[in-house]
Amino acid sequence: MSAKVNIRPDLPQERLGPLRHVVQQAALQAPCPPWVVVEDEEGAWLHHLTTAPAGERSSGVVVVRSEQALLQCVRLAVGGVLWEPPSTAAMALAFRAAHDRASLAAVCDICVTTALAAHRPPRFAVRWGNQALWRHQIGEPRMAVLLWKLAKAIGAVPAVIPGPCLLLPEVPAEAVATALSALEQEGEVVPGDGLEILDLPATPTAEDAVAAAGHLVCSTRQSPGSSSMEPRPVYELPSGRHLGWWCSGPTTRRPASGWIALPELDVEHGVRWRLVTKQGEAGWVHDVVSADGITAAAPHAVRMRGWTSSRVRPGSPAGLLAEHLIASARRQGRTVWLPNADQDAIDLVLRQGAPVWVDGPAAPPRRFENAG
Fold first, then answer.
1. Nearest of 277, 278, 333, 276 to residue 302 by alpha carbon
2. Is the confidence at residue 3, as pLDDT, over 70?
3. Secondary structure (H, E, C), 101-153
4. Is the CB of residue 272 less than 8 Å from the CB of residue 261?
5. How far is CA 1 from CA 67, 94, 125, in A?
6. Helix or strand or coil: residue 96?
7. 252-306: per-residue pLDDT in tens?
8. Where are the domains positioned within the chain?
């Protein structure tokens, strides 16, 4: 078949000719995306991405030159990505990644929210506990999607507003607990600190109700406290050796063996993780999103920032970033910790030929044993 793929922005012929040939060859191996965008110095590539609908971005492919552009592709949930100069094999992987990606749901729909408020005024605003940490761990867009899925599972209108927060006329506790458990069984990384429920004030109109909810969510700060999350295991690959645990906040629990990683929000690094054993402190691991971050971080291991690790697979933005960070860390004699790993992420890691720490839905479950 002949490729009918728009290449954007306009490029000089010396770049366009070879790229068009690669696109045509990749189209013989994988389904074509609607467009291929190429990073340029003027920033036209980013303008195209930020003005495209979310569903269109998730099926598009971007050719990048820089780490910064790659990270923007992760943020914008682009379907597929590859480095310049492009190869046919890498282009075909990016095509497949874009084809396999489900379109993002427009979960923060103000029309739906206002319609709900007019039909059954919301009485409660529901948000995730410990949001400051979970924004780093899975990202605000994923937190909103999970609230949207939660609403659908309990038979409620998915009225999600930025924050993110779900507006409900009532909160059926048993149905919510069942829905959260089902999401985890489906392999979702569900925030481990539960839900926080805020009472909403009565308002005269639906529009006022939505505005009041947004104001309440923005003005009500969450108080830091001990984590209610059950510690989750961390393993080393390819050995499969259990290394330790991680938790979403302060806890007095200490593992009988290995370490437990406890997060601290840090202005410079976003999050850094204190490794603690039953004997005491064992070191630090910093969140990173770049090779420069690896150089500046703690000397032994670094952690790929959680929200960047969604959908790690060949040809995807997160997959290319993971490969890049693992290779950069290996050259510097360090190890990468990849959080939130599903089976596709595990498969990608095993192909890298370097030790990597992992946690997530594909990691074997393990019971936490507290030190005596």
1. 333
2. no
3. CCCCCCCCCHHHHHHHHHHCCCCEEEEECCHHHHHHHCCHHHHHHHHHHHHHH
4. no
5. 33, 18, 52
6. helix
7. 889 998 999 999 887 666 788 999 999 988 889 999 998 888 887 767 789 999 9
8. 6-100, 110-219, 232-358
